[in-house]
Amino acid sequence: MAEIIPGSGPVLLLGDHASNAVPADIDLGVDPALMDKHIAVDIGSAAVARSLAARLGAPAILANVSRLVIDLNREPDHVGLIPHRSDGHLIPGNDTVDRFARIARFHAPYHRLIRDRIRAQRPRLILSVHSFTPCLEHGGTDRPWQVGVLYNRDTRAALPTVDFFRARGFVTGDNEPYSGRLLNATLNRHGEGQGIPSVAIEIRNDLIREEAGAEEWAGVLAELVGQLL
């Protein structure tokens, strides 16, 4: 279901796209090389989240299944929940999948873990760690941002986060490279839906692909969390 990092701090860290793992009994029908691309995993996000959790003593819940199996940051009825195509690449193994079985196996347990964690220890802040590719392979344009801040209606954490990054000279996307008003399912449910301040951080993946970059950004996010709290 997920990698669970224990902690007792006031922040809950999430990683919806932290893994490129595919269970042995699932055949996506794709070239294995695709599993190291952004369509399968948020490159570098797991390393950032683990380092940040260690710095903060914070609990973290990190997905351990690729979003090509199921996208845990989508509503169960979302058209892209089990993708048939991603950035121009066909995912033929998903064409005849039992949608409800895959939701029951992966999506529902992941979100129950988050729900139960919040019930057991309500956080003051939920921070979701993601990454994005500098440019999509098919029909994409260059994405100049170093980091993006995604949010829906609750701006309590998001707007100060935008200010934090810009004050430090980072090229910062405000609901870019895509909008949290459209793609924010996990935080809509567990953050905004529960009245808990939350924000999704999207780091450009070339900045965190290597360990040194991931550690550097974990330090930046640790400072951010201190400011937000």
From TrEMBL:
**Coiled-coil boundaries:** none
Which species does this protein come from?
A: Sphingomonas kyeonggiensis
Superkingdom: Bacteria
Q: Which InterPro entries match?
A: N-FG_amidohydro, UCP029730
UniProt keyword terms in alphabetical order: Hydrolase
Q: Which Pfam families match?
A: FGase (PF05013)
**The protein's name:** Putative N-formylglutamate amidohydrolase
Q: Which GO terms describe its molecular function?
A: hydrolase activity
Q: Which SUPFAM superfamilies match?
A: Zn-dependent exopeptidases (SSF53187)
UniProt KW Ribosomal protein keyword = no
The answer on whether this UniProt entry bears the keyword Hydrolase reads yes
